[in-house]
Write a structure and sequence with these properties.
The complex is a heterodimer of chains A (482) and B (39).
Chain A (H helix, E strand, L loop, with lengths): L12 H23 L5 H6 L6 H12 L2 H23 L2 H17 L6 H44 L3 H49 L2 H11 L9 H20 L1 H9 L5 H12 L2 H6 L5 H4 L9 H12 L4 H38 L6 H24 L5 H5 L2 H5 L2 H9 L2 E2 L1 H22 L4 H15 L6 E2 L11
Antiparallel strand pairs in A: 1-2
Helix pairs in contact in A: 1-7, 1-15, 3-7, 3-10, 3-11, 3-15, 4-9, 5-9, 5-11, 6-7, 6-15, 6-16, 6-20, 7-14, 7-15, 7-16, 9-21, 10-15, 14-15, 15-16, 19-21, 20-21
Chain B lengths: L3 H31 L5
The chains are: A mainly alpha (482), B mainly alpha (39).
Chain lengths: 482, 39
Amino acid sequence: MTDLSILAVSLSREAAWGIVLSLSILWIGLGLYWGKKARSSEGFMLAGRNVGMALGAATAMATWVTSNTMMVAPVLALEKGIWGILAYSSAAFGLMLFAPLAIRIKKLLPEGYTAGDFFRQRYGGFGWGLFLVITLLYSITWLVTMAIAGGKLMEALGGIPYVQGMTLILSVCVLYTLFGGLFAVIGTDFIQSLIILIGVVTIGVLVLGKLDFGATYEHVSTYQPALLDVMMPVALLAFFNNMLFGFGEVFHNNVWWSRAFAMRDKVVGKAFFVSGLLWFPIPIAAGFIALAAGPLGVNVTDSSKVGPMVAEHVLSQSGMGMMAGVLILVVLFCSIASSIDSLLAATSDLVVKDVYCGLFGQELKEESFRRVAGSVILGVAVVAWIIALNEWNVGLVLYSAGGLVASLIWPVIAGLFWKQCNPLIVNIGVVAGCISGYVCFFAYEPYMAALVAAAVSMCFTLSSKWISPRPWPESNSKEPAS
Amino acid sequence: MFSQTFFYSLVILGLVWTALGILALIILFVRDWKNGDLW
C-alpha cells in the first residue's frame, strides 16, 4: 500500500471535488442505466452469462489494474531495475493462463455461480472451508487497501480530507454495484480501461519526450549498475514469485471466476488471453518513468511515490499546469474504482451463495434476492470502511498472502483437468503450502513465499493422483473428458 | 548488463503496445456493438 502524502497538492480542493464528483455521477448514472438489464439474480450476479469479447477482455484487464499497478511498478523499477519492471508485468501471465481454465470452468460448471461451487464439489467441506477462509481474507484486505489508496490519493492530489475521499470512492462503487450488479461493473470497467490506458500512454510519451535516453542509461549504469544487471538474483526471484502470486490470485479468486461464468462460451478463453495481452505492457509503460527520476532531477525522498512524483514533475514542466494533477487523479481514481467495484460484486456473490446459502443453509428466492444481495454488498463495504477508517495496516496481510493464494494453483488445475485424485492429500497440501509460505515470508525472504508455497502444494497435489485416488463425486456438472 | 538498445526498445514497445491496446478495445467494442454481441 502506498502513502501519497508527500506529493504536492497540485489541484485546488474545489477542482478535485469537481472532478471526483463528476466521475461519481457518471458511474452512478451508468449503474442506474445498466441496472435495468439486471432483472433476475443471474442478471445481477453474472450479467446474464452473455458478455461478449470487448467487454469481457476490458473488465478482466481493468480489474487487474489497481492503484498498485501505477504505484508499485515504478517502485520495482527504481529498486530492481529492468527485471523489476518485467517482474510486475509477469502478473499478466496469470490472466493469459486462466484462458484455458476459464473454458474448462464453463464446460464443467455451466450453471455455476462462484468459485466456491467448484471447491465444494471437488474437495469437500474441508477444502471448501479452506478456500473460503483464504479468499475472503485476501479479497477483503485487497478491498481495504484500495479504499485506503483512494482516500490517500484524493488527499494528496486534491487536498480532500482522507476520510471524506475514502468514503466517497467506496460509496460511489457501492451505489453503482447496488443499482446495476455485474452489468454496471463490467460496463464501467470498459470506460475505466480506456481512461487508464490513454492516461498511461499520455504520461509515458510526455516523459519520453523530456528524456535524453542515452543520458538516462549512462546515469543508471554509472550510479545504479545493478538495475541493469541481467543476473540480479533478487530481481529474478521477484520475477518468478510475482508470476506465481499472479497465477494463484487469478486462478482461485471469484473476481475472475464470476467473469468466466458471465462471459459467452465462445469468447471466454479469447477474452482472458486478450486481457493478459492488454495488461502486460502497462507496468512497463508506467514503471520506466521511475528510472527517469535521477536524470530529470526529481528528488525522490520516498521511493513509494516515485511514479506520480516523476509524472507530476514532467507534466508540470510540459506546461500542463493543473491538468497534470487532473490527469493523474483521473487515471488513479479509475484504476482504484475498477478494482473496488469488482471486489465488492464478486466478494458479495461469494458471501451470498457460499456463506448465506451454503454455510447457513438459507434458501434464496428470486423475489428476496436483491434485498439479500444488496445487504451483503453494503455489509462488505461497511467492514472495509471501518478497517480503512482506522487505517489498519492490512497491506502486510495482503502482501504476505502470496503463499496462501499460490497454494491453490495446483488444486484448481487438478480439479479442472484430472479425472480423479485424493482430496484429503490435496487439502493437506494447501495447509502445508500456506504454512511454508508464511514461514518463508517472515523468516527468510518475502519473494520466496509464493514460490515455496506453490512447490509444496504441487508435491502434495501430484502425490494425490497416485495415493488412493478416487473419482470426483457425482454432481450436476459435466465430468472432465480426459 | 542489459544494453541501452534493449532498454529503449522495451520502453517503446511498452508504450506502443499499450496504445495498440486502446485501439484493439475500441475495434472490438465497435465490432461487438454492430453485431449486437456486447452482452
